[in-house]
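thought: fold this chain, then report.
action: predict
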Amino acid sequence: MIRNVSLITLYCQDQDEARDFYVDVLGFVPNTDVQLDGFRWVTINHPDQPELEITLMKPGPPLDEEGADFYRRQLDKGQAGGLGLRVDDCRKTCQELTAKGVTILQEPSDRPYGVEAVIRDNQGNWLVLVEPREFTPEDFA
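observation:
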């Protein structure tokens, strides 16, 4: 029986730079950093969600070369999908992240489901920040 989501993958070109961004800028904590048969396994997690690890993975096996190239191109263009991150105050979080040099792709905007902004990490992934609010399907009409 599946109990929860415990691991997700976020592609990056440089595992050290990605880890440092998520730890030093966004407040995640380092978890695993091991080498096995020439493969480096690096994970982080949010301190309030230790059961969910985020793998910071360079595009490569088990992807074939075409798949790995696709992810590298998306990262290089800054168009790779990333994570959705819940925040308490989207506008304030964006101000704090801007002061730390983070690129804001979409300024905080009111949406039917809350306040949303989009930022970019230092690897080319976009991250959605959401300050959620209660909503109903009618809020989208």
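thought: worth noting. The chain has three helices and eight strands.
final: tokens above.
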